[in-house]
Specification:
By secondary structure, the chain is α+β, with helices and mostly antiparallel strands. The chain has two domains: about 300 residues, FAD/NAD(P)-binding domain (3-Layer(bba) Sandwich); about 140 residues, Alpha-Beta Complex (Flavocytochrome C3, Chain A, domain 1). The protein is about 35% helix and about 25% strand. It contains 19 helices and 21 strands. Strands 1, 2, 6, 7, 8, 9, 20 and 21 form an eight-stranded mixed sheet that branches. Strands 10, 12, 13, 14, 17 and 18 form a six-stranded mixed sheet that branches. β15 and β16 form a beta hairpin.
Length: about 500
């Protein structure tokens, strides 16, 4: 049986998350013929699972609020999240992101993505966090529309297996499309936009700490295929042992929250943004609290004030100094946060909150009791609460006896130790070209988003999305402007939506 004729285009993008979509849109709108390969049956990647904030400096939103900002100040403030770790990690890329961030936000707005803000987040010296409206799926919806308008061939169920080389340059991708092998050749370049490797248990065990290896990935489909393919052709991988986390997270609500139920119609998102940007913050707090109790982590301050953490059997397995790390090493990385009525009251009013959206709203115990009653269980004593949450009564009694908790007991959970993203990435230069160990570029190969951080470490809200969109936009525009190196006519791929 003859192999299918290779499909030839200008640009092949591997991965249909935010960075891959941004790359495809920018390249296609610049006149390039683009094919996007997505391994799953639908696009979105980790972007669709994120909170959706984008941090940027010098934006129109800031100017409307009278906020004077400087991209160089954004660079400095990003270091302040962890100066010892972040300083010098990839200064050229951090500077590139900071100076292009406002243009990226404007580009997304031009494509119909709506935002509210800016909002403050320490240690940023001025408000820079722009929140997507109504949720992160809006990025995917608007960029998907733009990609199809621009003629991008989106092929789902397409698992990239290896990069194709010729005379030391990457010239295409070999992939399985619905289990059948196909080659996709690229006249101008291949862009790896496959995300991080947090969903790959083998890579986590090989490269990360025991707690990170045992944590539950937020995106189990982030398997690190792009890292492997790039390394196979000589790319340098950087900071593969770095990450921020794990962190405690409650599971998703069995019922979609208010923000998850809102439609993604373009006009409706714009209307929501208009409202969000023109009403006092107090009007937004009920909506934001819905987000907080659905997606945000409980603060470790609860443990410092006397709450304890037990595993799925009811055992207290540590002293909660590093609760997420400790829980990750327990069976299934699953447990319960235990408090009493006194602590519940303490975390039901300022200054103690369970979770927060900086500068907008705090979520207290009563917000969780109303918004996520599935997470709250009560018992008059340890035996009653153990029965309610299904743990061993003897082990749970011992756990309570080891604490200062008294009277009526309350369990919040289950709670999981979860891994948001890994920071290890392919080495890239400030043109997003993939680099070898000696600093030379691999012709025809680019990387963007989480897989293309180039050793840059990103801590804090809005930086990963900001880099994903910025790097994708820049790589796509650069490829659209590059000269065609192969004059063969391109074939027409058949887009397939699932």
């Amino acid at each position: 049986m003859m192999s299918p004729v290779p499909h030839t285009s200008d640009v092949v993008v591997i991965g249909g998350g935010g960075s891959g979509l941004a790359t495809a849109v920018a390249a296609a709108e610049g006149g390039a013929d683009v094919v996007l390969l997505e391994r799953r049956s639908e696009i979105g990647g980790s972007t669709a699972l994120s909170i959706g904030s984008l941090t940027a400096a010098g934006t129109s939103f800031q100017r409307r609020r009278g906020i004077v900002d400087d991209p160089d100040h954004l660079v400095e403030d990003m270091w302040k999240f962890d100066e010892e770790l972040l300083s010098g990690d990839a200064p050229d890329l951090r500077r590139l992101y900071a100076h292009e961030s406002a243009r990226t936000l404007a580009w997304l707005i031009e494509h119909g993505v709506a935002f509210a803000g800016p909002f403050p987040e320490h240690p940023h010296r001025v408000p820079r966090m722009h929140n997507v409206i109504p949720n992160s799926r809006s990025y995917v919806a608007r960029l998907d529309e733009a990609a199809r308008r621009a003629g991008v061939s989106v092929i789902t169920g397409a698992e990239a297996e290896r990069l194709l080389e010729e005379d030391g340059a990457v010239v295409g991708v070999s992939a399985l499309v619905d289990g059948q092998p196909r080659d996709f050749l690229a006249n101008r370049g291949v862009v790896i936009a496959s995300g991080d490797f947090s969903g790959n248990r083998v890579m986590r065990e090989e490269l990360l700490s025991r707690s990170a290896a045992g944590a539950v990935p937020i995106n189990p489909d982030a398997l690190g295929f792009g890292h492997r393919m790039a390394a196979d052709v000589g790319a340098e991988l950087k900071h593969m042992d770095k990450l921020f986390g794990p962190q405690l997270r409650f599971p998703a609500s069995p019922k979609p929250g208010l923000l998850d139920r809102l439609p993604l119609w373009r006009w409706f998102c714009r209307l929501e943004a208009l409202v969000a940007n023109n009403v006092p913050p107090s009007f937004l707090r009920p909506v934001v609290k819905s987000l907080l109790v659905s997606h945000m982590s409980p603060t470790d301050e609860m443990f410092r004030r006397g709450a304890i953490l037990v595993n799925a059997s009811g055992e207290r397995f540590g002293q909660e100094a590093h609760p997420a790390d400790e829980l990750a090493l327990q069976p299934h990385g699953r447990g319960f946060l235990i408090l009493d009525r006194r602590l519940a009251a303490e975390f039901d009013a300022s200054p103690h909150h369970i979770s927060t959206a900086p500068g907008i709203a705090f979520a207290y115990f009563s917000d969780y009791a109303r918004g996520r009653p599935d997470l709250i269980s009560r018992g008059a004593d340890a035996a009653e609460l153990a029965a309610r949450i299904g743990v061993d009564p003897g082990a749970f009694q011992s756990a309570v006896d080891s604490s200062g908790l008294t009277g009526e007991l309350i369990a919040m959970g289950p709670v999981h130790s979860m891994l948001t993203v890994t920071e290890g990435s392919i080495s890239v230069d400030d043109r997003l070209r993939v680099l070898r160990d000696d600093g030379s570029a691999i012709a025809g190969l680019y990387a963007v988003g989480g897989v293309g951080q180039g050793g840059m470490l990103l801590k804090g809200h809005g930086h990963h999305i900001g880099w994903a969109m910025t790097s994708g936009r820049l790589a796509g525009a650069a490829l659209a402007a590059s000269e065609t190196t192969n004059d063969q006519p391109s074939n027409q791929a058949e887009p397939r939506n699932q």
